């Protein structure tokens, strides 16, 4: 399961790789939930995690007891509601999947009213207890929850843009899987940069930048269908689960994959590059100061934000549709904390 590093792009189909020995305490906030439980299990298997701290307002000690029996070296501790500070003590990486998921007919933005305050309060606790931790935000709507975390940290005087990440890896995982199906190739040959944000039209897959020559052959109606499926893959799962929630297993996989990429970067591995939603200068002149693009991860977190590169005319149009919606979502998040 754990292979030595052979690829630099964190978006390879390998879940974990390790090239170094520094180990890290990781805390999951929302560990009792649909994502939190399998994510905790996967993090228990990551050789770069030495200590796993599981917190939820319900059920985390039970999840921790269960996961702790897995025969990997990391230690696991579970924390009940009143022990949030203890869960965060000394942690270097905090992953946040706390909050409610969608039901059919809802948009991610419909989750704002419930999840905004959950995420703000958790961010305030991180600011107080572990202000230098790297924070990975999974809770939706990501386009707004990441600015909420940033503004909360800013208010507390501890915001470092190099240490805050919106997890958009599921879009990258889906793009790779769906493109492989359409082209009859392997997902490992379909490394798709996905830029923008994490909801419908703000998700912009750059299929023209895929090295696999078969990707260039996806044109016309097949191209439109593929882009739609990448943008609205979340809806597919929400519909199929029929009221029981949204993607949990594929999201846990994606969350563990991004966490491993970050840990490799923190460990000094060079060339770990993957899309993630961060404070970004790329469209700051248009008033959009958070954006997902290929980001190099390093010992301090965000090492380098790559330019988006050349776009096809179709991708230019997708980007045009993304930006106003993304701007609105970001402003809503900021206004909530202000
Ligand atoms: N970024 C992405 O690509 C994706 C994001 N999501 C989002 O992830 C979030 C979680 O989804 P699920 O795990 O399916 O939901 P869930 O309802 O199964 O689990 C959420 C967990 O959060 C906990 N929680 C609520 N308030 C909390 C607080 N203040 N502190 C700690 N824990 C708290 C709940 O007790 C519950 O265990 C949702 O907002 C969902 O939309 C889901 C899939 C993909
Ligand atoms: O669709 C949702 O609500 C959950 C999510 O973000 C995804 O699956 O991409």
Automatic annotation (TrEMBL):
Keywords: NAD, Oxidoreductase, Tricarboxylic acid cycle
Catalytic activity annotation: (S)-malate + NAD(+) = oxaloacetate + NADH + H(+)
GO BP annotation list: malate metabolic process; tricarboxylic acid cycle
Broad enzyme group: oxidoreductase
Domain Lactate/malate dehydrogenase N-terminal: 24-166
Highest taxon listed in the record's lineage: Eukaryota
KW NAD (keyword) present: yes
GO MF terms, alphabetically ordered: L-malate dehydrogenase (NAD+) activity
Xref: SUPFAM superfamilies: LDH C-terminal domain-like (SSF56327), NAD(P)-binding Rossmann-fold domains (SSF51735)
GO CC term (a single one): mitochondrion
EC numbers for this chain: 1.1.1.37
Residues annotated for substrate binding in this entry: 102, 108, 140, 174
Phosphoprotein listed as a keyword: no
Record domain Lactate/malate dehydrogenase C-terminal: where: 168-337
List of catalytic residues: 198
InterPro entries associated with the record: L-lactate/malate_DH, Lactate/malate_DH_C, Lactate/malate_DH_N, Lactate_DH/Glyco_Ohase_4_C, Malate_DH_AS, Malate_DH_type1, NAD(P)-bd_dom_sf
Stored CDD domains: MDH_glyoxysomal_mitochondrial
Positions annotated to bind NAD(+): 30-36, 56, 115, 138-140, 251
Subunit structure: Homodimer.
Similarity comment text for this entry: Belongs to the LDH/MDH superfamily. MDH type 1 family.
Record's protein name: Malate dehydrogenase
Organism in which the protein naturally occurs: Gymnopus androsaceus JB14
């Amino acid at each position: 399961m754990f292979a030595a590093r052979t690829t630099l792009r964190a978006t390879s189909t390998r879940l974990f790789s390790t090239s170094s020995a520094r180990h890290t305490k990781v805390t999951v906030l929302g560990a009792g939930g649909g994502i939190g439980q399998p994510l905790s299990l996967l993090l228990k298997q990551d050789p770069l995690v030495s200590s796993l701290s599981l917190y939820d307002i319900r059920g985390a000690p039970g999840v921790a007891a269960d996961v702790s029996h897995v025969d990997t070296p990391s230690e696991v501790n579970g924390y009940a509601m009143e022990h949030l500070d203890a869960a965060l003590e000394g942690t270097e990486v905090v992953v946040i999947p706390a909050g409610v998921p969608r039901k059919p007919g809802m948009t991610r933005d419909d989750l704002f009213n419930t999840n905004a305050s959950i995420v703000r309060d958790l961010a305030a606790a991180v600011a107080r207890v572990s202000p230098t931790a790297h924070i990975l935000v999974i809770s939706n709507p990501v386009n707004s929850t990441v600015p909420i975390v940033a503004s909360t940290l800013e208010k507390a005087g501890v915001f470092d843009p190099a240490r805050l990440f919106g997890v958009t890896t599921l879009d990258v995982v889906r793009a790779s899987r769906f493109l492989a199906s359409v082209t009859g190739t392997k997902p490992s040959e379909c490394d798709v940069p996905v830029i923008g944000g994490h909801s419908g039209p703000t998700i912009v897959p750059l299929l023209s930048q895929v090295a696999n020559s078969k990707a260039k052959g996806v044109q016309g109606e097949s191209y439109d269908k593929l882009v739609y499926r990448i943008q609205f893959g979340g809806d597919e799962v929400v519909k199929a689960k029929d009221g029981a929630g949204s993607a949990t297993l594929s999201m846990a996989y994606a969350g563990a994959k991004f966490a491993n990429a970050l840990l490799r970067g923190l460990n000094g591995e060079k060339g770990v590059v993957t899309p993630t939603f961060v404070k970004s200068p790329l469209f700051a002149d248009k008033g959009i100061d958070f954006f997902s693009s290929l980001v190099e991860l390093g010992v301090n977190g965000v090492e380098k934000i790559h330019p988006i590169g050349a776009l096809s005319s179709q991708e230019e149009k997708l980007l045009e549709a993304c930006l106003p919606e993304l701007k609105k979502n970001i402003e809503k998040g900021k206004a909530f904390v202000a």
